[in-house]
């Protein structure tokens, strides 16, 4: 059987190859930009993703609106102090703590009986020195008469030499470091060089607050506007002081806070006004030593009531002399002037007081020029003659009824007489001429028109 012969297809001389490529490969071959899907977010297969995105955005918008609405309502209806307490940066910063230091006192006697120690302290206090009595600690307790405290060793040594010249040969220095500690403060103190320095001293059975001015004050007044506030005005100062406020250390109970500010007076003068917040039971006594103004704080004695307001005038540079307030202890050289006769009308009382003061002012004007010559004479007879005249003037002034507005000037006049008399004592160890010049300056201030202080 013959097999059929298969005829091969004839091929064209030009042949072609078939290559299968996808879209991306075609784009690469043709060098065309990649195609992107239009409206991909609305693709039919992305409904769940669109739902989740929309939910997140809606929740975020709702939270922002809630915060804004809540803040607006709180700003309108919540009291501002409550709002301020919500933010730490708006809370008031802690007041700086008073700087503390050791104190220096002079022990003049150590006695077995309290009465004898009180008598010794009273005699020294009558000479114009800040004397006090304390009971020593320990088993063998004695009662000590002391003078001070002072902020510097120089002041204490000067007082020791003065006491030795008056016959207290056994006077010894006493250092109290019970209150010395580094000041704690949550914010730095911003004080200029012209601002008064403020220091708290610890002393036996007492505290002493010290204001150090740039120059010796010509006038220092103290008052107690209420039972819990002591106010001190001192000056004039060369330049105004910046307002400052301090708090007491944790272990101090006789005072709470201290603040200072500047007051303007007649003649463009600047005065420092200090306010001391203290307990009602605390007793306060103000004295000066050169540029320093001391405020001695003590506990009340049995049977005393230290809560009544009082006012006093302290003469510059005379220590405790002339500090006549309800805290002055018995044994001072003369009683404080009586304030105001209740039976007279204010106008009649003022007229009576001015009439009674005219001969005293004339007599002081006559005696004042002789103070320097008496101090320079070196004669005990001259000292005694001038002192007798001043003693009679002091007695007259101490027994007068003084209207309340005149108490400050009246007390300053008595203080000037006491300073003048102290320089005429036979045992006076200082410079008599310098003391006489100081008394003359005080007389001029006491007999001049009073300084009127107004708040700035």
List keywords for this structure.
single chain, 4 domains, 18 strands, 33% helix, 7-stranded antiparallel sheet, Immunoglobulin-like, disordered C terminus, 456 residues, alpha+beta, 5-stranded mixed sheet, Alpha-Beta Plaits
Structure report:
With 456 residues, the protein is α+β, with helices and mostly antiparallel strands. The chain has 4 domains: 42-87; 100-176, Alpha-Beta Plaits, CATH 3.30.70; 197-314, Sandwich (Immunoglobulin-like), CATH 2.60.40; 338-455, Up-down Bundle (Four Helix Bundle (Hemerythrin (Met), subunit A)). 33% of the residues lie in helices and 23% in strands. The chain is built from 10 helices and 18 strands. It has helices spanning 23-30, 47-77, 80-85, 114-126, 153-165, 346-367, 370-377, 380-398, 407-422, 432-447, and strands spanning 100-101, 103-111, 131-135, 143-150, 172-176, 197-203, 206-212, 219-226, 229-237, 244-247, 257-265, 269-277, 283-289, 292-298, 311-314, 338-339, 401-402, 453-455. Strands 8, 9, 10, 11, 12, 15 and 18 form a 7-stranded antiparallel beta sheet that branches. It has a 5-stranded mixed beta sheet with strand order 1-6-7-14-13, with no helix packed on it. The protein has a 4-stranded antiparallel beta sheet with strand order 3-4-2-5. Helix 7 (370-377) packs antiparallel against helix 10 (432-447) and helix 9 (407-422) packs antiparallel against helix 10. Residues 79-92, 182-190, 302-343 and 450-456 have low confidence and may be disordered.
């Amino acid at each position: 059987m013959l097999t059929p012969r298969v005829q091969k297809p004839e091929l064209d001389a030009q042949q072609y190859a078939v290559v299968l490529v996808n879209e991306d490969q075609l784009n690469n071959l043709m060098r065309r930009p990649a195609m992107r899907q239009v409206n991909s977010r609305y693709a039919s297969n992305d409904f769940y993703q669109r739902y989740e995105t929309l939910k997140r955005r809606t929740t975020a918008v709702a939270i922002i609106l809630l915060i804004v609405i809540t803040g607006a309502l709180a700003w309108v209806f919540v009291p501002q102090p409550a709002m301020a307490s919500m933010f730490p940066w708006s809370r008031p910063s802690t007041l700086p703590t008073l700087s503390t230091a050791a104190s220096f006192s002079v022990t003049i006697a150590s006695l077995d009986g309290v009465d004898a120690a009180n008598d010794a302290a009273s005699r020294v206090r009558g000479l114009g020195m800040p004397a006090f009595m304390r009971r020593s600690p320990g088993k063998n307790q004695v009662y000590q008469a002391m003078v001070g405290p002072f902020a510097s060793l120089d002041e204490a040594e000067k007082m020791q030499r003065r006491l030795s010249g008056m016959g207290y040969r056994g006077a010894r220095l006493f250092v109290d470091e019970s209150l010395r500690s580094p000041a704690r403060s949550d914010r730095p103190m911003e004080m200029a060089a012209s601002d008064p320095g403020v220091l708290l001293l610890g002393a036996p059975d007492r505290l002493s607050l010290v204001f150090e001015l740039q120059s010796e004050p010509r006038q220092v007044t103290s008052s107690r506007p209420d039972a819990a506030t002591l106010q001190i005005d001192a000056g004039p100062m060369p330049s105004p002081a910046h307002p400052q406020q301090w708090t007491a250390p944790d272990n101090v109970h006789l005072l709470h806070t201290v603040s200072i500010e500047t007051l303007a007076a007649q003649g463009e003068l600047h005065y420092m006004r200090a306010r001391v917040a203290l307990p009602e039971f605390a007793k306060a006594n103000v004295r000066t030593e050169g540029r320093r103004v001391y405020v001695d704080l003590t506990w009340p004695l049995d049977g005393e009531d230290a809560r009544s307001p009082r006012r006093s005038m302290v003469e510059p540079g005379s220590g405790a002399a002339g500090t006549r307030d309800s805290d002055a202890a018995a044994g001072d050289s003369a009683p404080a002037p009586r304030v105001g006769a209740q039976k007279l009308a204010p106008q009649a009382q003022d007229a009576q007081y001015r009439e009674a003061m005219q001969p005293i002012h004339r007599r002081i004007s006559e005696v004042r020029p002789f103070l320097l010559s008496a101090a320079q004479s070196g004669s005990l007879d001259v000292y005694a003659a001038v002192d007798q005249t001043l003693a009679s003037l002091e007695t007259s002034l101490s027994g007068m009824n003084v209207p309340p507005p005149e108490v400050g000037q009246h007390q300053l006049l008595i203080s000037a007489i006491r300073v003048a008399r102290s320089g005429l004592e036979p045992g006076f160890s200082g410079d008599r001429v310098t003391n006489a010049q100081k008394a003359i300056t005080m007389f001029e201030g006491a007999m001049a028109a009073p300084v009127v202080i107004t708040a700035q």
